[in-house]
């Protein structure tokens, strides 16, 4: 963006660079459909607009006019093309985005791992030696951004599907308060938890993406780190951290304290109760089953068996259990809010592990147990924020030569501007640690 504004490069040059990267081995399996010639036209017409023709990728669950929205599946391949852009795509296009294409994803967004048995799994760009998972469900979006092909990767986050791949691929992912962005024109996973949001390569770019997607300016706050009161949640979120994650997170906390941050450790005990209030798969299973029921009856054999099993698990939730879940969630949110009184943000590892090899969790019944184990680990920390109806930013905190690790700054609903402002200060403080990571 700076190079464009200064005249050091042009929109034409930038879109050609993006197209070359999108077509390169670095983005193998990241895109399910590309529209390079249309992107060139988008870029040429975007002078003076906020995105100025920079490349944007779109997760396969969002409607783009004239294209089939298949949600990473084959069972929707014969669906009619979308008659209009969904609001998220329309806002990006109006801001001058050059839409590169549709990105790969976990089928119907139902996994934090990022594997896809129909179209293959894009490899995480962070490790050229080992093909590792990119994280999901917004897998292709993360790879498009981490490889440099896309300036913004539009995706969704229901239990961590923006922040998990951002953490594993070493980029920035912001999950805003769900109500701030429209999910109209997107295939739903959970109508209660779904959030339309994006991945970028810096917090500043995340702010720009958020402003475009919400249509509202982010309130800038230039306070230094010492001007904010931060907490580290010790309940659950620090359990069983992989050694590399624990080292990177502690090193980040040390760097933040050295930069003046005031960080308290708090128990945040209500987190421990979250599992007990989510029977039969919680919102995602029940609400996805409601959407998929007829499609499963007609085309169930075409689903990823792992996804099908998770959706069908929601068939047994009764109406009174669903209503009670909403009530229990409201009560739980209030308890967490009381525990966070006086704090501006909470810091946690985004995920407790680094990216595992794709071969370890590749499609196949013999690897199902390992897949679900890894999936549960990946979702553990991030899904807490979704149940809180909160907002969260994941940004890299690993050092050069290490597998990517994400630091998550988060809070309750409608604290988006504060979390982004704190994230910018964190990014600055961690720059000496993460330089060239």
UniProtKB/TrEMBL annotation:
Q: Which PROSITE patterns match?
A: AMIDASES
Keywords for this entry? Hydrolase
**Hydrolase as a keyword?**
yes
Q: Give the main EC class.
A: hydrolase
InterPro entries in the record, alphabetically? Amidase (IPR000120), Amidase_CS (IPR020556), Amidase_dom (IPR023631), AS_sf (IPR036928)
EC annotation?
3.5.1.4
Q: What SUPFAM superfamilies has UniProt attached to this entry? A: Amidase signature (AS) enzymes
Question: From the Swiss-Prot or TrEMBL record, what is one GO molecular function term?
Answer: amidase activity
Location of the Amidase domain:
30-420
Pfam families given in the database record: Amidase
Cited PANTHER family:
AMIDASE AMID-RELATED, TRANSAMIDASE
Q: What is this protein called?
A: Amidase
